[in-house]
Amino acid sequence: MTSLVQQFATNFDHVRQINLETIRGFHTTHVLIALIKVGFFAELRQFQKVNLPEFARRQNLDLKILTSLCEYLYSIQILQHEGDTYFLDEKGELIDNLMTGPLLVVHAYENVFHNLEPLLRKQKKFGSDVNRLSEFVAGGSGTVGKSFAFPLMINFLRQGRYECVLDLACGDATFLAALCQEDQNMRAYGLDIAPEAIELGNCVLTRTGLQDRVKLLVDDMFNLDKTTHLFQGVDVVTCIHALHEFLEDGNERVISMLQKYKARFPGVPLVILEVIRPPLEELRERPGGMIDILLFHDLSGQALTSREAWKTLFQQAGFTNVKEDYFPTVRTAIFTLC
Ligand SMILES: C[S@@+](CC[C@H](N)C(=O)[O-])C[C@H]1O[C@@H](n2cnc3c(N)ncnc32)[C@H](O)[C@@H]1O
Known about the structure:
By secondary structure, this protein is of the alpha/beta class. It folds into two domains: 2-96, Arc Repressor Mutant, subunit A, CATH 1.10.10.10; 134-337, 3-Layer(aba) Sandwich (Rossmann fold). It is built from 16 helices and ten strands. Helix 2 packs across helix 6. It binds S-adenosylmethionine. Residues 134, 137-138, 141-142, 145, 169-171, 175, 191-194, 197, 220-222, 240-242, 245 line the site of S-adenosylmethionine.
């Protein structure tokens, strides 16, 4: 009997550990995303506390479900409470500060995971039957970028003393807003194919008072050759976290875009920031957040790739002068093509 209990206790420890890595993560992610989307964390940020009955009434939410979600987050030390009033615990502060962007990106790809079995069975196809949520791709990417990609790029551009930037696939324009806030002399253009992204971007510009210095438009960056009358005075072009979206069927599409770029902006440097795909063995040694990033990219027709593969592609497009700055800790490269 004792040994049976002991064996159960041993297994219980294993199961508990596996539970933490599987079911707990699944539920916590969903609970957090739902609460972010109904404005619960924004309210916490603004007032440091949320009274559940009052918040539920104001937002027309089901109080029983809201309470359940908050009790779940209390049990795992993300929230604290006094009666019906909840506030952030230490872990909650960290999540609010560091994880909102990644959680929004996960939400952007929620349809992919919801349809994983039919995608696996070839009953559905990404891009036609299953799509990502453009608004959250742009908003999530903009929030994620604030932590290091945008400051890195801003630092980089400031060294070049540029005065007018065009950002290809600009998303919600968080990058352009941050750049122009830091550098009072900078003007900017941004283009993105998703109207939802440009709508969010125009809200960001209005909020930051930058609408006169930054102009956004809905357009396809593969039609750069047709935009001859636009983008006056551009002396540098950027493309952040975007080119990998077009490599699924090989390099041809990006090569052709880069060739159009060369003809349209002769002599203007193109600065590309990309997350670099490490070899599989290295991922097993140090998975970090990278394996999750790779997973949703791979499942949605995108192809994060290696530094060497990028450099080959740039060469194929006719760029012989390519400078690479690689940041191994964050597995990110900045390529400058002249
Ligand atoms: C991962 S997001 C990156 C957004 C932004 N650069 C950032 O770092 O936050 C990729 C963006 O590429 C945009 N995009 C996809 N295809 C595009 C195209 N053909 N032309 C312009 N933008 C495109 C998407 O709408 C999305 O906003």
